[in-house]
Amino acid sequence: MDAATLRIDPAPLRTHPIRLLFRLLISALALFLAAWIVPGVEVNGFWGALIAALLIAVINAVVPPLLAALPIPWTLVITLLLLSLIHI
Questions:
Q1: How many C-beta atoms surround the C-beta of residue 49 within 10 A?
Q2: 13 in the Ramachandran plot: left (φ > 0), alpha (ψ -120 to 50) or beta?
Q3: Residue 66 belongs to some domain of the structure
Q4: What is the pLDDT of residues 54-76, one digit of tens each?
């Protein structure tokens, strides 16, 4: 096989856009439910919940691969630092 016959096919999408939108809507509804159950938590309207769900999805998509690319000791340090920022 030479360079002229080498063909690279892109991988198909694993998540369909409609399924992604459905998951974002479910996450926004879950945020509304959490705000209703947990005292002191407040969501400002549907768009606020949808934006929060989108931010959570982006963070969940970006952080794990970054942590997986780091060596184990640095992963533990960064994980503990992130957990210390979350702890109130």
A1: 22
A2: beta
A3: yes
A4: 999 999 888 888 777 767 777 78
